[in-house]
Amino acid sequence: MANSGCEVHRFDPSIKSAHIHEGQHLWYHRLSIDWRDPNPAIAPHKLHSNTKKLGTILNEFGHQKIDVLKADVESAEWKILENLILEDVVEQIGQLVIEVHIHWPGFEVSGNDSTVVRYWYSLLRELELKDFRLFHTYKDLSKPQMFLKKEAFNASSCYTLSWVNTRWK
């Protein structure tokens, strides 16, 4: 995308430098998107670890919108999606491509199986109510066939869901 002239920002908490500008349109940032901003009273657990809400990152970078957000946030996706919806940040996104993991509830998601599934469904339904439409799904068959810690035939524990914001301008 950067080679096509799009401004691209990649967030990876494992890179050594805080910010790397590579080429005209590509930036790497030592950041990870989270559903909460760090508590300033608590010291970071790792020297190179830095997590922030996407809305905070947008404000700090002076950005108003994101044309395409592709996210693989390692089982934090449900809480991050909830935060994007609750803070209306999701409305600033044109396309949302998110990898979801369903082999366990996810960080800070609890309850019995039906409660977890209702929570997941409520977030996906909220996207639809905000005029996002699912246009592509990908089932990663290289991942275990698990659903909430149970084996599930012909399933995957990891799916990529691609949504388009039909209100996007």
How would you sum up this structure, described in words?
The chain has 169 residues and is an alpha/beta fold. The strands form four sheets. It has a four-stranded mixed sheet with strand order 6-7-11-8, with helices on one face. Strands 1-3-2 form a three-stranded mixed sheet, with no helix packed on it. The model has no long low-confidence stretch (mean pLDDT 89). The protein is 21% helix and 31% strand. A hairpin with a 2-residue loop joins strand 9 and strand 10.
Write the layout of secondary structure elements.
Blueprint lengths: L7 E4 L7 E4 L3 E4 L2 E3 L16 E3 H8 L4 E6 L5 H10 L6 E9 L11 H17 L2 E8 L6 E2 L2 E2 L6 E8 L4
| Uncertain stretches | none
| Tally of DSSP β-strands | 11
Oligomer state equals single chain
Mean pLDDT rating: 89
The H-and-E topology, N to C, reads as EEEEEHEHEHEEEE
Spatial arrangement of strands, main beta sheet:
6-7-11-8
Question: How far is the N terminus from the C terminus?
Answer: 19 Å
Sheet with the most strands, sense and barrel status? 4 strands, mixed
Shape: globular
Structural class: alpha/beta
Strand content: 25-35%
Using the CA coordinates, give the radius of gyration: 17 Å
The proportion of residues forming helix, as a percent range, comes to 10-25%
Number of helices: 3
How would you concisely characterize the structure shown here?
Helices cover 21% and strands 31% of the residues. It is built from 3 helices and 11 strands, in the order E-E-E-E-E-H-E-H-E-H-E-E-E-E.
